[in-house]
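Students often ask why inverse folding is considered easier than folding. One informal answer: many sequences map to the same fold, so there is more than one right answer. In these notes we will look at a single instance of the problem. The structure comes first.
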């Protein structure tokens, strides 16, 4: 652990403020970590790492190490000041035991521990303790190494010095509680992405990630980005054609706050704006994002007018015009962040709007004047976007006008449901007329609507809105959902609260599903964030033995059913012929088991489709979530964008791991 000259008397037990006890956490873990699924499990790591990041932002740490260990343990180490170990006057316990066992106890409530902190409620380490079978806390401080052990939130040992230490820091080792979590399997890729992002956001910090779990390949990664968010922008745009090679960057202090912005334009049609407050991502934006948007639009309009790119007769550029093809990162740091919800989805501090607006407007004006060639490329792109917007408005108005003239006629292929209560209605987007026919016959007409698609929809990753709305399949879907699109989108007018993509379990079905997901991600993000988008999971196999019929949704399930049934396995070929896998003598003595592999939904009769895929009582569906905006953007750009090389590399590196490839 690194020696610290900056350790000071400000950060002692008196800096720890206690608000209430820990008991509610185990009863209602979802209130504190969102869920008890995989996302909640990973949240334990983020809470501990966020504490270490706070030390780094305060200038006391420059290295954080996360280790996935055997037996389900995770260890997080930093070389910060170390959690205080002296006695806390309010509790009579050591400061370490206080923060480990008391909810809302920490150095983030005005006691002098942190000027700027990512943790809003100070619940992090105590919640991890409450939801773990075992936690071992080790602190290097005051020349000694201190240690205390806990089980399910309760101290099992007293804090004691177990050795000496030349440096300072904190080591938290925890094992998540199997009584609480649905899964205890950590996702290496998810952890890597999160810690890479944190390394970008904290200039000069070293992030080390090590995997030594049983049954896993041993891995070791290290991140260090001296360029901070400028390097992050470069990484996000690595597969794009750029409009301004020189990344715009500003880093300025305003009062007690810090505003850092980096941005760059590419020739694509989508915007990527990532907003952070105290290194916590704010997927719903907030006041800092509002300040950024207003300054960007105002400054580019002023420059375009001054240079004569926009004439007197021309409309001003809109916010959408100035953000098409933009990749931007807004990172602010402030002493008292006010977020909406424990998930910190949206920043609410009113002053940050003015601070970001002020800093960006001044710095961007200077950038445009100092880089005239790149400024012209940016403003020309915005002007071209404005022209396309006007064309899209005409196309959209044409759709709406036509619908109004026809008494809001819904698409002819749509088999609508009888209910008009959006909260109970479902829209199945189905591939082809064959599957559409089965779905229409098998559905519950009261609340299930069916919209068959003819062929593959347009790849919207490479198309503007005007071209999209000329595509009949997309136009029909927009009209059917009823919430409009673009700047007229109104999610409260959505006609169905479950939009379900239902495609075949083959390569074509996967491609159609990806095209639809691209459409929803790029143009109906609010619908995804509100939890309205799902992907149906039809079975891969039907397994029959005598009169018993079972369905399997994976090869593993099929193998389990086959093992349970026993007997002779008979595979049914695509043309309905049966092929026995065992010899005739054995077949004569054993009951036959027929396994049918479904290539498409159209192969199921309406009753089977209802029973396996559409009946709410027993169907399997996956809700579509956006866990990581940057990762989602990168994935869609790579899979659906115009650059071939990244997609080719992706396919080549994963080809050997593909199962059940239908060609």
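Output (designed amino acids):
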């Amino acid at each position: 652990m690194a020696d610290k000259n900056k350790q000071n008397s400000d950060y002692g037990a008196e800096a720890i403020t206690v608000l209430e006890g820990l008991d509610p956490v185990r009863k209602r873990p979802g209130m504190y970590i969102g869920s008890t699924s995989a996302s909640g499990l990973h949240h334990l790591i983020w809470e501990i790492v966020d504490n270490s990041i706070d030390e780094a932002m305060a200038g006391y740490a420059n290295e954080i190490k996360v280790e996935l260990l055997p037996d389900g343990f995770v260890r997080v180490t930093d070389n910060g000041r170390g959690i205080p170990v002296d006695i806390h006057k309010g509790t009579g316990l050591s400061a370490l035991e206080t923060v480990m066992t008391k909810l809302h106890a920490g150095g983030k409530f005005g006691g002098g521990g942190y000027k700027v902190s990512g943790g809003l409620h100070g619940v992090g380490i105590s919640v991890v303790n409450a939801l773990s079978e075992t936690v071992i806390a080790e602190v290097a401080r005051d020349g000694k190494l201190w240690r205390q052990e806990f089980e399910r939130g309760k101290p099992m040992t007293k804090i004691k010095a177990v050795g000496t230490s030349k440096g300072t820091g904190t080591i938290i080792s925890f094992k998540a509680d199997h009584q609480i979590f649905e899964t205890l399997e950590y996702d290496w890729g998810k952890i890597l992405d999160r810690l890479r992002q944190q390394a970008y956001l904290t200039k000069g910090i070293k992030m080390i990630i090590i995997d030594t779990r049983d049954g896993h390949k041993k891995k070791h990664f290290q991140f260090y980005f001296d360029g901070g968010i400028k390097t992050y922008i470069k990484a996000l745009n690595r597969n794009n054609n750029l409009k301004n090679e020189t990344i715009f960057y500003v880093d300025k202090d305003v009062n007690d706050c810090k505003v850092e912005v980096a941005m760059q334009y590419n020739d694509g049609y989508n915007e990527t704006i990532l907003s952070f407050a105290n290194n916590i991502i704010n997927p719903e934006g907030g006041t800092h994002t509002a300040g950024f948007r207003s300054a960007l639009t105002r400054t580019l309009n002023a420059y375009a007018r001054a240079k004569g790119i926009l004439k007197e007769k021309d409309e001003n550029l809109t916010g959408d015009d100035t953000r098409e093809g933009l990749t931007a990162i807004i990172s602010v740091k402030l002493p008292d962040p006010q977020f909406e919800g424990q998930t910190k989805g949206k920043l609410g501090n009113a002053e940050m709007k003015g601070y970001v607006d002020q800093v960006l407007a001044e710095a961007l004006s200077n950038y445009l004047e100092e880089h005239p060639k790149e400024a012209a490329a940016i403003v020309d792109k915005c002007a071209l976007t404005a022209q396309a917007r006007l064309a899209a408005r005409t196309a959209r108005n044409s759709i709406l006008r036509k619908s109004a003239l026809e008494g809001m006629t819904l698409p002819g292929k749509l088999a609508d449901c009888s209910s008009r209560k959006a909260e109970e209605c479902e829209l199945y987007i189905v591939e082809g007329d064959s599957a559409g026919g089965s779905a229409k016959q098998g559905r519950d007409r009261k609340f299930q609507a069916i919209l068959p698609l003819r062929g593959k929809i347009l790849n919207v990753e490479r198309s503007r809105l005007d071209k999209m709305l000329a595509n009949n399949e997309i136009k029909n879907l927009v009209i059917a959902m009823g919430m409009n699109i673009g700047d007229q989108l109104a999610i409260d007018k959505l006609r169905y609260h479950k939009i379900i993509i239902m495609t075949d379990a083959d390569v074509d079905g996967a491609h159609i599903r990806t095209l639809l997901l691209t459409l929803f991600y790029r143009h109906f993000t609010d619908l995804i964030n509100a939890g309205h988008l799902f992907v149906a999971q039809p079975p891969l196999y039907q397994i029959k033995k005598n009169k018993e019929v079972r369905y399997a949704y994976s090869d593993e399930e099929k193998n389990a059913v086959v093992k349970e049934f026993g007997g002779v396995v008979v595979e049914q070929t695509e043309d309905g012929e049966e092929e026995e896998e065992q010899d005739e003598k054995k077949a004569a003595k054993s009951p036959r088991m027929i396994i049918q592999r479904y290539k498409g939904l159209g192969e199921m009769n309406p009753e089977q489709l209802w029973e396996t895929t559409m009946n709410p009582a027993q169907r399997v569906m996956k809700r579509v979530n956006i866990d990581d905006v940057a990762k989602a953007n990168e994935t869609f750009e790579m899979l659906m964008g115009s650059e071939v090389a990244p997609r080719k590399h992706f396919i080549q590196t994963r080809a050997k791991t593909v199962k059940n490839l239908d060609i």
